[in-house]
Specification:
Blueprint: H1 2-18, H2 32-46, H3 52-68, H4 74-90, H5 95-108, H6 121-147, H7 154-161, H8 169-183, H9 186-209, H10 225-246, H11 250-258, H12 261-270, H13 278-296
Helix pairs in contact: 1-2, 1-6, 2-6, 3-5, 3-6, 4-5, 7-8, 8-11, 9-12, 9-13, 10-11, 10-12, 10-13
Length: about 300
């Protein structure tokens, strides 16, 4: 019953988006916002894990293929499409992703037998991709509305949506709850301040110098004990955060982030980043780059307001 309900609601939404009939302002005569909320509630309550973005692209492609069947070149087009589909699937790509790649590859490839789709296929590829992205953004907006009752701020959700896997609604909510709980703690608030300070100093230096400081800081150039302690803390955090994020143990990743608060605070209290010694300065800026990279691996903290 859940599968049938999801299929009905998502197919309805794809159909209206395909003909550019979307809710505007307070007008929603076809109750599309309600349909999207219904999808979200079903997915979250049933803990269903899938790529909503790929599903939306697939449904749009199904409509495209239906149109092709009415053209004289359909038979040859189907053969070429199937060849590419089998090739992609044999490489271990999921069937949905293989379907999308096969069609896009076919539409963009020159055909020796002078087979081609209608003129402007590049525009069509961009259009169908944009349609799927627009609909996914609509789901994300509805998700923010749905989670507002939980007290989850929209900027926290935005910070999570900027991460990979943002079309897996269950994953997004799991990450957002963990991040929200973390930011409510003293460690979370102070670490956010430390991240912003590091990011601001680094961004200004990169703009002024015209280079990107992301080539790895070397502990042998660390002069202050707090600097050496920060190197050790970042090493420990990286070892914990990366595997925790991979296995979706977000509370563990946040705890590792919290452990960075004290060494980052101590570093900024005692060390001058933009020192006259250019070797030391570059090394410290690269150290700030590590802080930024580690924090951004958990969520896009630049999107957090306040």
């Amino acid at each position: 019953s859940v599968a049938v309900a999801l299929a009905d609601k998502i197919d309805t939404l794809c159909g209206f988006w395909a003909i550019d009939e979307k809710p505007t302002g307070s007008k929603d005569p076809y109750a599309l916002r309600r349909a999207a909320l219904g999808v979200i509630r079903l997915v979250l309550s049933s803990d269903i894990r899938f790529s909503l973005g790929i599903l939306l692209q697939t449904l749009v492609l199904e409509r495209c293929i239906t149109d092709w069947k009415a053209t004289p070149n359909w038979n040859r087009g189907y053969e070429l499409w199937h060849e590419r589909l089998v090739d992609q699937y044999s490489k271990g790509v999921s069937i949905r992703e293989a379907d999308i790649r096969a069609v896009k590859d076919l539409m963009r490839s020159p055909m020796e037998e002078k087979f081609s789709f209608d003129a402007g296929t590049e525009d069509f590829v961009s259009a169908f991709e944009q349609t799927a992205l627009d609909l996914l953004a609509f789901f994300h907006d509805r998700l923010k509305f749905h989670l507002r009752d939980e007290g989850l701020r929209h900027d926290v959700i935005d910070a999570v949506l900027a991460m990979p896997g943002s079309d897996d609604l269950v994953l997004v909510v799991k990450r957002a709850r963990a991040l929200s709980n973390f930011l409510k703690t003293d460690d979370g608030e102070n670490l956010l301040l430390g991240f912003r300070r590091a990011n601001n100093i680094l961004t200004q230096a990169e703009e002024a110098d015209g280079v990107e400081y992301s080539f790895g800081a070397d502990p042998k150039f660390a002069e202050d004990p707090t600097e050496k302690a920060l190197f050790a803390a970042l090493d420990a955090a990286e070892k914990t955060i990366a595997p925790a994020m991979a296995t979706e143990e977000f509370e563990t990743a946040m705890a590792a982030m919290a452990a960075l608060r004290a060494p980052i605070d101590a570093f900024f209290d005692t060390v001058q980043v933009n020192t006259d010694n250019q070797t030391i300065r570059r090394n410290r800026l690269n150290l700030l780059s590590r802080i930024r990279a580690i924090c951004l691996s958990v969520a896009d903290l630049t999107r957090i307001e306040g």
